[in-house]
Design a protein that fits this description.
The protein is an alpha/beta fold. Helices cover about 40% and strands about 10% of the residues. The longest helix has 22 residues.
């Protein structure tokens, strides 16, 4: 059994993916080829913004967004301690300071009512994460940010395809970042990511930063990086793109079925009002997390833990001065979460097998 079944996905779209990649091999424009621009047009239209800027990875996209907003040494950016390290890593990489704020137990996303307490005169931006596949309350987040004159960056690495109040993830904040890592809802066959904004000036800066700080060759107006998206990876995404809407629907249906079957046995992910959920991971909560994972492995069922430690527990962030107990909701989640196999090709037979194994293990 596959945790994320990329093999079956490839077979479904093989002819389209192969044809798209072969076209790149034939025309030879391996860096910023025509497929990159074509993909960016498709992505921007889907999200509902003026600009989509593809980049080399989801981590690069966060760093580019922060640089384009002029955030650096002496600045603070508020984010969550329960996320993949890239979210806070990018803040440190631009010389700014991550400031953590706790999550809500129901959806693993930032607790909006706690953000204001973390704001100081040095705060420049809010960087919430749309974790596991659904968005936090961006109406409340944007309103708070506007009151304090702050930018909002959505880390949408796991939520591409999700909506909140009929607006797509990636299109509800100053700028948004996503990832095309192979395991994501829309994944390529290597690293990749994208930025989304309707701010023309910000888009121009981000395009320049991704290509060594310049929009024209040998004209470097900003301190940039080599953050360009690979043309072959753009071809892969274009090959998958016609099936993406179907995959989103399948994710929603499979996730809802998991919840219906498991609600009486374990803590299940709650879909918040106004939201759709793309279930980049289907994550349950159980006190006997490690024991359950061991039993499922013995039954041939792969699982994963996202994330076994909060960021303030990681040695690289020790200098921030946070102690264990600073973020009790996030810390408890990190000890209880377990992600089950989740992908658009998961059959009801396999899902029933997984559900029965979970229930049997917890008797």
């Amino acid at each position: 059994m596959e945790f994320i079944d990329l093999k079956t996905q490839y077979l479904r779209y093989q002819s389209a993916i192969d044809a798209r990649m072969q076209a790149v091999l034939q025309h030879g424009h391996f860096i910023m080829g025509p497929e990159v621009a074509e993909l960016e047009t498709q992505l921007a239209a889907y999200v509902g913004v003026k600009h989509a800027i593809t980049v080399a990875s989801g981590t690069d996209s966060l760093e580019i967004a922060l640089r384009a907003l002029g955030i650096g040494p002496g600045d603070e950016v508020i984010t969550v301690p329960f996320t993949w390290i890239s979210t806070a890593e990018a803040i440190l990489l631009v010389g700014a300071t991550p400031v953590f704020s706790d999550i809500a137990a129901a959806d693993f996303n930032i607790a909006v009512d706690q953000i204001e307490a973390a704001i100081t005169p040095r705060t420049r931006a809010l960087l919430p994460v749309s974790l596991f596949g659904q968005m936090p309350d961006y109406d409340g987040i944007n309103e708070l940010a506007a009151c304090h004159g702050l930018a909002v960056i959505e880390d949408a690495a796991q939520s591409f395809g999700a909506t909140r109040n009929n607006r797509r993830s990636g299109g509800v904040t100053t700028v948004s970042s996503t990832s095309f890592f192979p395991a994501k809802p829309l994944g390529c066959y290597g690293d990749g990511g994208a930025l989304f904004t309707s701010d023309d000036a910000l888009a121009e800066k981000m395009r320049a930063i991704r290509s060594h700080g310049g929009l024209q060759r040998h004209q470097h107006t900003l301190l940039g990086m080599n953050g360009r998206f690979d043309t072959l990876q753009a071809a892969v995404l274009l090959g998958k793109w016609p099936g993406f809407a179907w995959e989103v629907e399948r994710r929603m249906a499979i996730g809802a079925r998991y919840t219906r079957l498991l609600r009486s046995t374990v803590g299940v992910p709650e879909v918040m009002p106004g939201n759709t959920h793309v279930y980049a991971q289907y994550t349950i909560r159980v006190r006997e997390r490690d024991a359950l994972g061991t039993k499922l492995k013995a039954a041939g069922i792969p699982t994963a833990v996202y994330y076994p430690k909060c960021l303030h527990e990681q040695p690289v962030f020790a200098s921030l001065g946070y102690k264990l107990g600073a973020f009790p909701v996030a810390e408890q989640a990190s000890r209880e979460v377990l992600s089950l196999p989740m992908h658009p090709f998961l059959s009801e037979t396999d899902q029933d097998f997984i559900v029965d194994a979970v229930k049997s293990a917890l008797i």
